[in-house]
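Can't paste images in this forum, so I'm doing it all in text. The chain is below; anyone willing to post the predicted structure tokens underneath?
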Amino acid sequence: MPKTISNSMPVSLMRLCIDVPCRLRFLYRFRVLCAQFDDGWKSHVKRIGIVGGTGYTGVELLRMLATHPGVEVSCLTSRSEAGKTVASLYPWLSHYGSLSFEEPSIEMLAECDLVFYATPNKIAMNEASALLDRGVRVIDLAADFRFSDVSLWESAYGGPHGAPLLIDEAVYGLPEKYRAEIGRARLVGNPGCYPTASALAMMPLVEAGVLSSPQVIIDGKSGASGAGRSARTDLIVAEASDNFHAYAAAGHRHAPEMTHQISKMGQEVLVTFVPHLLPMIRGIEVTAYVSTFLSLDDARELFRSRYRDEPSVGVAADDQHPETRWVRGSNRCVIGVYQQQPGQLIISSVIDNLVKGAAGQAIQNMNLMLGLNELEALPMNALSP
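Text version of the structure:
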């Protein structure tokens, strides 16, 4: 027991209160300990780079990573906005302080632990190898590493692939199917938005091998943000509002990705896919029409069993139809299963195209690759209204 001057205050504490030199020594030691703690904490924080940080997916990455305790965005590139701070372009991200966009540089990106490519197609494939050689993990949000067969990629996107040797190494970034492989990966190809909603709608069926025909029809609807920030006449309010139409009905580049990746899950399929533009900003709904041996009750039980332990996927109640507002702003997918006649199923799947369909799923993959909590920084509740 320390000696006391009163019934309540130890001598050591009384001395600290009245002895100025003692108090200064205490404050100095306290500041040293705080600095050591801060240095230790920072040494465990992973450094993240974002290439192409001014598009919708890049900004969504910034929004969600701002709340992540295990990482910090230390490198942010944009050729068009180099020299400008994040806060000057996006005031709602003012907590990034003086962080500025810079010209892309492999040397600068090589200082990171992991780099996101939120860029158009054919950028990451020409730079990923240099970063991987320096021990930097890479997640590409474009299509450069979504195929395990280079000939399929070249057929869908044209021209030779810039890194064909990396095709075999890259892991398709759908955690619900490839969680363990993503955790070991150096390079991940983040799935497209339509393919994410479609693969999750089809995965339980093809894994179980219960399709009676390989022919699958997928009808997709997306908000305008799925086309990115580029200026296009068909996306301005006067054109898109109070309007609804199909596009790329003769062939969309996501159809080969769907056919390839869904077939790899267990049963070969041939996808006919037609997308549509909805007069809203964000959100995707896909409706898949399939032939199957299953009854409706068995199919619903199959989906509930498959996704019971998946935190980012839910199955709607039998009397409900998934709505895009159920997942707006969240890293969730909600699926409904229906039947109009025996031997056929109708599956409805909704996601937020910018979150589970892009930036959110990329962060989910990042967490797995870096050994962090898979759901860290991911919004799981929808914005309402």
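The first helix runs from residue 11 to 18. The domain at 44-190+358-369 is CATH 3.40.50.720 (Rossmann fold).
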